[in-house]
Design brief:
CATH superfamily of the largest domain: Dipeptide-binding Protein, Domain 3
Strand content: 15-25%
Structural class: alpha+beta
CATH topology of the largest domain: Dipeptide-binding Protein, domain 3
Strand order of the largest sheet: 19-18-20-14-21
Radius of gyration: 25 Å
Helix content: 10-25%
Number of strands: 25
Distance between the termini: 35 Å
CATH architecture of the largest domain: Roll
Amino acid sequence: MSANNETKPAWLLAAILSLTALLPLPAGAADPAPQPSFSLHGTAKYGADFDHFDYADPKAPKGGDVVLSAIGTFDSLNPFILKGTPSPAVALTFDTLMTESLDEASTAYGLIAESLEVPEDKSWVIYNINPKARFADGSAVTAADVAWTFDTLMKEGAPNYRAYYNAVDKAEVLSPTRVKFSFKPGDNNELPLILGQLPVLSKAYYATHTFNQTTFDAPLGSGPYKVLKTDPGKSITLQRNPDYWGKDLPVNRGRFNFGTIRYDYYRDPTIAVAALKGGAFDWYLENSSKNWATEYDDFPAVKQGDLVKEEIKSERPTGLQGFVYNIRRPAFQDPKVREALAYAFDFEWSNRTLFYGAYKRTRSYFENSPLAATGLPSPEELKILEPFRGKIPEEVFTKEYQPPKTDGSGNIRANLGAALKLLTAAGWTVKNNRLVDKNGTPMQFEILLDEPAFERVTLPFVENLKRLGIAARVRTIDPAQYQHRLDQFDFDMIVNVFPESLSPGNEQRDFWGSASADTTGGQNLIGIKDPVIDKLVDELIAAPNWDSLVAHTRALDRVLQWRFYTIPQFYSQSFRLVYWNMFGHPAASPKYSIDIQAWWVDPAKAANVNQRRSAR
């Protein structure tokens, strides 16, 4: 994953939801009634007659030109395959079957599908296509397009589609506006949500275009924007489609307000921040605590109110960001070694010295959520974990996991002593100031980064490792090379984020499952092949209700924690925004995200600020 400075953004997936399968519908059961929304854990917040999301303003003006930033580069407008580095901006040109609410968990509302039908046992789902749904060329979106999209993504799409939709048996066209997905036997609750995220492609368009190749020809979509122009690798400009078929749907009312959106690409965040202050683009999500504390307050535009700093609290689960081991490497296969190296990361010193006290220490894979394992296992968790006693660390049952701590002074002699004890127990010794194994082979490895700004976090860690006799080196490469090496699992250690939602499920197989450990382009970056974790993930996916999901997620969390697959870093509970004072936005923000598509350009503000900005 690419990152801005210290904290890495959540993955460019549409959402993180789970995948499972349930038993067939009993003979004679009544046909389910069509419903406009689907909520996994209860009643949807918005009723069938709702007008707009609370975090959108239906009176927001349309129009105005906005410039945003992106880090890295792109060489394709095809986001559905493994080849190339696509621009995430293209997502705004495609609609999905349903769309999620950003202020409630595990709930989606009709978009291309105006309703869905789900039987009590959730063994299948039927989506009823909105007869008004259109692609950008005016052609109708049909059930045949939906089925073709699913089949094509499963056969030729990026590997994550095959993992994500693995529990789907088949897609059937029932009529021009009805498509049915049948599920494989098993326990399944979330597939109606999972399949609701399916972007719908035009079968007719791909009859004359190649699907599985990179391209700078914008694919035909059905979303609120169209690609206006591209400067390959440098910028991409989208234009709001005035004929967008879904502009008056409740889920879209008050959203997608900008006339054009241009994404300018920058090599790294340092250059991007300088460009922002120079007026080159308009809106920025600041992930660096140092920049937030030092880069803006003394800047004249901030003092004059032209450049705005705004901090918005977030309730989103943050997942885990950390130094991630590739346990395919022999040196990292011993859990004692992985545990030992964590003592060399001094979070308390980093937070005080580098981060201005802005962060909290991450300790859970499901941090900042009720799914995080804390304290000792509950009785419900013990029932889940007990069958694996002897196959998982005993600490899972007896201790709360906490990453190593320091007093923040920078003196970590005690921590390094604890690390050496663990390394000695694992068969490593220090000779001539080098840590070597029983064969005399020194421990040395590379920490791979995709942006220079993160070096300030990593280099102090490397210095502490050096005091243990470990020769770690930092290598920073461009995002395209970085992604290629991740796809091939060609790294020793990286900094990565494992994003989570309040509805963990099938994506856990991709993160931790044995089957994904050798899948090129998969997300099991660690290389975990553990039957216990496979079983825990399967049971989590099959959880029948919220209480069961919480218990199973916490049980999985405990095992991951005590396997020491990562060195947890830190997280923030706020979104930190910096933007030129040309926008309006609703008073209410969604609980779990920032929806810039609900913002708008204020013409009077824009005229004033642009005049002063051009004069700087």
